[in-house]
Every structure is written in structure tokens, then in C-alpha cells.
Amino acid sequence: MSSQKSFAKGSTAPGPVAQGSVRLYSMRFCPFAQRTRLVLTAKGIKHDIVNINLKDKPDWFLEKNPLGLVPTLETPSGQVIYESLITCEYLDEVYANNKLLPADPYEKAQQKMMLEHFSKVTPYFYKIPMGRRNGDDVSALEGELKEKLSKSNQHLEKTKSNFFAGNSITMIDYMMWPWFERLELLELKHCMDGSPALQKWTECMLEDPTVKDTKHSLDTYKAFYKTYMEGKPNYDYGL
Predict the structure, then answer these.
(1) How many whole angstroms separate alpha carbon 187 and alpha carbon 182?
(2) 179 within domain boundaries
(3) Which bin fits 44, alpha (ψ -120 to 50), beta or left (φ > 0)?
(4) Which is the catalytic residue, given 30, 88, 191, 204?
(5) How many domains are there within the chain?
(6) Do the record's keywords include Oxidoreductase (predicted)?
(7) What is the predicted pLDDT for the residue at 2?
(8) Is 30 a catalytic residue?
(9) Looking at beta carbons, which pairs linking 139-143 to residues 24 or more positions away fall under 8 Å?
């Protein structure tokens, strides 16, 4: 994980990407950028990380990605790739070692369908905490999240495997993980009650060296999240 402080507006752009490497423009606490960091780490891809201040983005970064979003990849030839799922699939295609996506087209399609279902889950990780902050009754939203997580639990029970595509970690596990890593931070861990297979999956994921290498401690997450909710995110917290 990069310990480099974030680049903000007015900063000097970093030098060219080294040959034989790839650069990730990231933000240390972003779950979408964490997806790409997980893939880079799991596949042992040589890379450097440039952290971006997402509240005060450098002009040179906006020239590379007009959307101003992380994760963004850059190659030594100046090719730029962005959007978390696209960057991860790109890395898996370009770097043949430790393949994370299955070669079989149907199995690959199954992972993409699971991700499509999961894309309907992630909004709850934002809506529920924001509702609480506004003093809203979020019990109905929590019930909906619990129901959606139970569907993931049913998939694991049906396949009788530790991970979502068998007994080893693949792309789908890494693409879902960043939000589960934040369950305790967001006080949503109880939404996994009654989902023992899913709870076992989280325990297995926490033992993975790649997950260990890319995660923050709960205290660090809490401290950053406090600054984020106050509207003054400290992207460099802990450095």
C-alpha cells in the first residue's frame, strides 16, 4: 500500500511510468480503488501508486481522466484505463500469471452476473449511514440489505465452497470484498446475522495475504470516515 501523500490542485505531476511497471492513481480509503490494489497485489504486478486528493483534484490528473475518478491506470506508453471493473479485467488479461477470471466463457459470465447483482447491494453502504446521520429510521433499509446479503449466503451454501466461485479466491471475491471490510466501520455487521456461510467467507478472506496487505485497521478507517462525514476528508490520515 502506498504511503505517499495525496496530490492536490497545483501539485507537480509525477514523472513518467517506469518501464515494466504500471501506475495506479488511487485514494487510500476508496473501496473502488481498493479493488484494483487487490488485483495488482494478488497478481504480483510491479506498480507504483499515486494518491489523489479527490476534493481538490490536480489539473494534470483531470487531463488523464476527465471524470476525475479513481482507480485510474496508466502504462509506460501513456495508455490510460479507468473504472474499477475495467481496470481489474484489463490487468487480468494483460498479465497472464495468477489468473483471477476463469477462462471458460460461461464461468466468466457467471462472475459478471454476480457482480451485477452485487452492484445493487453497494448503495446500501452509503444510504444507511447517511440516513442515520440525518436522523432517519433506517430499519427498513437495513432489512433490505440483510435480505440481499442472505442471497449471497444462499449461493455459498448451495455451492458448499468457501469462496464465490469455488474453494480458491477469484476475481468475484476481490470485487466484493472492500464493502465487507467496511461492515464494522459502518455498523452494518448485524446485517449478516443469519448468514453463516457469508460470515465464514469473510473470515476466509481476512486470512488472505492480499487482503491483509491492502486493508486498514478499524481505528484508521473510523478516523478517516469521521473527517469524511464532516466534509473535510483527510486523505493523508495516518501518514
Answers:
(1) 9
(2) yes
(3) left
(4) 30
(5) 2
(6) yes
(7) 53
(8) yes
(9) 142/188, 142/190, 142/191
